[in-house]
Task: structure prediction
Amino acid sequence: MDKDLRVLLVEDSEDDALLLERELRRHGYRPAMRRVDNATDLTQALADSAWDVVITDHNLPGFSSAAALDLVRQADLDAPVIIVSGTIGEEAAVAAMKAGAADYIMKGNMARLVPAIERELRDAEVRRKHRQAESTIRHLAYHDPLTGLTNRHQFEQRLADALATAHAANVQHALLYLDLDQFKVVNDTCGHVAGDELLKQLAVLLHGQVRETDTVARLGGDEFGILLENCPLERAQQIAAQLLRAINDYRFCWLGKSFVIGGSIGLVSINRASSSLGDLLGRADVACYAAKDLGRNRIHVFQDDDIELARRQGEMQWVSRINWALEQDRFTLYRQNIVALDGSAGAERCEVLLRLRDEAGNLVGPGAFLPAAERYNLAPAVDRWVVDHLLRFVARHGQPPDAGPARTFFINLSGATLNDDGFDDHLRALLRETGVSPSLLCFEITETAAIANLSRAMSFIDAIRAEGCRFALDDFGSGLSSFAYLKTLPVDFLKIDGSFVRDITRDPMDRAIVEAINRIGHTVGLATVAEFVEDEATRQELVRLGVDYAQGYGLHRPEPLASLIAAQVEAAGDGRGGK
Result:
């Protein structure tokens, strides 16, 4: 099959041009040739078309191969220039090669022409692919490979430049942080291929809604950043609203399904008062999450006195510290005893509590970091840390040979862990590895978490109870809507919310609520545990009400889990049996 070849021929002899064309055709080429013989026509031809090869005579009237080479170089044409001449001395040929000629062919030896052209075309293709690879690498260095938008690294560089101009020239810019509200629905319903296509389509949509001077970037997942340069806050709010309308009007269709996509936008002004790149991104992220918390599909402008955002910023700062604590093993386990109110000896029970040892070695209570762990989906990892370390502790130290009844450890699980499909397999493997009896473990889940996804909670509890563990429903009464669920939830203990227990000696309503919860718990065969028992009067009132167990600072102040070892040794030495 003939091969197309675009040839620009610098030649004043029509006969020589025909000979050259015949030589090319003889070797299977179908040349599209344009013949010129002066500088003006050559310049025009270089501008009009792309050429695979330029073939030039050495000497033409008023023109030369050196002049032709110079014009090709000026045109920045990556095509080989081959000199075909009847007369060219060795010195002139060397000079032409130094000037950029690919080869020179004597008209009396045309057999070398086609091999020379094919060699140069291969070299040109190698150069083209090399340039293409370099261009791709440069593009990937600054752009997201999926959407083609600016990537996070380049976006942060442009944001830093904008911050510098805001400080130096007192100009205003704006930063938008956009998080899609329904992306997970598309991913979960239709798969990641659909999710990727959605992101690509939205990238085009977003890019079309901003000015040419603005930068749209994909920061990761379904999060986008938009830098609006030389844009005061009021104008930035208008652009953000325009973006939100475009997203709301957009419909993503996939395999017959149609999805409405919303977005939450955090907006931060960049001005002379702005401090650092990290602070800007943090504020924008915080503002975006505030938009989500306030109902989604809205814009939230960061304000320095925004109380909600200040709380959110504090939580976000905890994210890195929680990850650090997990990586560096900076958590530590405490325990608080759960006391039998009938005075029986029996097996000991305690709730396992968590503390974090900070950089200075100080202990930090869970109230400081658990809200952030739950909000930013770190709670399942924290729960696994607790279970892993507790079981390894029990496996190492266990009970003395004459310990008597086994101890029960109550372990809190977050609502997010209920949706952790791998938790039960992880627990099962850990029980096999450590040899710890499952009967020692009682997992606590809150009433709110259980009712929020009742079917999932029931299947989760069933799977873990099948291993021999037990369950407690924690903070019961906080929802005041769940009495009917007690007949279906497969739990063993009912822990009465401490907000009702704390004041039962002073508040008749709280006492009545605790009495009702205790009676209903016993009716369905559950043991009851009262939380937040702070004094002896409260303990005695719980005894009168018939509550089974109690815990609180009035009965036992939390102490390190390791203190159990010393207690067991002391009990064994006294001949009383370890507990």
Q: What stands out?
A: The CA atoms of residues 418 and 460 lie 6 Å apart. The longest strand covers residues 331-340.
